[in-house]
Specification:
Layout: H1 6-20, E1 30-31, E2 51-54, E3 60-66, H2 71-87, E4 93-99, H3 109-138, H4 149-156, H5 161-169, H6 174-186, E5 191-192, E6 194-199, E7 202-210, H7 215-229
Parallel strand pairs: 3-4
Antiparallel strand pairs: 1-5, 2-4, 3-6, 6-7
Helix pairs in contact: 1-7, 3-4, 3-5, 3-6
Length: 245
Amino acid sequence: MNTNYILPITIVVAGALIAGGIFWAGKSVTPIGGDQGGTQTVRAYEPGVDHILGNPGARVKIVEYVDLECQHCKVFHTTMHQIMDYYGGSGQVAWVVRHFPLASIHSKAPQEAQASECAAAQGGDAAFFAYIDKLFEITPSNNGLDLSQLPIIAQSVGLNVETFNSCLNAGTYAKKVTDSYAEAIAAGGAGTPYTLITVDGDLVPGGNLSGAQSYASMRAALDAIFQQLGTPVSPPASTGTTTQQ
């Protein structure tokens, strides 16, 4: 990262988040419990490994570690679609989703995470996001989803159910989900959703966010970053809200 804008971004983003009404840990966040947060590191986006919505070449990427049974993740999922409606079309911001299933309280979340990976195996990032969009739409959260719905969701988003079931039953992506959980801990995650804002692959100081940030907070933080980068924000012609499909 260019050291010329590290300090300004730190100051401006912190102020913007406070002004925008940031929710800190304990408010709109599902905690792991105990002191499990590690050092704050972030792995760069990897095509073919990570799932991304938006321009893979975007300088600003929002990396979210998600638990698909977390009620706060469900709320933040809608917020992030709104963020992508605003910034995504211009290619300025991309959204990367990684897994952080809190199995100690959401025993179904790891299998749901694996299901989303099986969806991606068939249809790439588009199928991944379609799958988690639908899952968030129907789950009551807090470990309330009937897992028999997983292949039904797959069918509803146009996947081959037999191939999907074979992938899920084999535990094809169990290790990937487990590794992603460990990565989230190493990145400082202590609850879900856990979000990292990066510029050119580097974590913005102050850009590690716990909890379901509001749309206003996210807009304030991103606008502050673009201001410091000297990059004009290019809003869409229409800022209608994305609804989950």
